[in-house]
Every structure is written in C-alpha cells, then in structure tokens.
Design brief:
Blueprint lengths: L23 H10 L4 H4 L13 H12 L1
Length: about 70
C-alpha cells in the first residue's frame, strides 16, 4: 500500500517512515489513550495550536470552527 500519511511529526517512533506497519501502531496507541491521530488535526485550521490530542480536544476544535 502506498504511503499517504499527512502527519508532520517525523520524530514520532510510530510515524510510518520509521517502520513497515503503516498507520496501525499509531492508531493502536491512539485508541488505547483515547486520542485522535495527529493527521486528523490537519483537517482543522491551526492544528499546531491545539491543547492536546484527546477526543475532547478534537471535538472542541471542530465545534469552534463551525461557529
């Protein structure tokens, strides 16, 4: 499968450029921690300004953009 990762956090050990397992390790970590993968935040304006990666942080940012 060709890589389509939009995550800019290249220092992350789970980034697909660091292994041959694609996004699976990142998704597994995020599910375990109830977080959203970094790449999802790229859908929003100014993702670098987010307070954290939690589901709640993502939901708040999505709702704020709709206002």
């Amino acid at each position: 499968m060709p890589s389509f990762c939009t995550c800019g956090n290249l220092n992350c050990p789970l980034h697909p450029t660091k292994h041959d397992q694609g996004c699976a390790p990142c998704i597994q970590k995020n599910l375990r921690l109830r977080e959203i993968p970094n790449c999802f935040f790229n859908l929003l304006d100014h993702p670098e300004d987010r307070p954290g990666d939690s589901l709640e942080d993502f939901a708040k940012l999505v709702l704020a953009e709709e206002k």
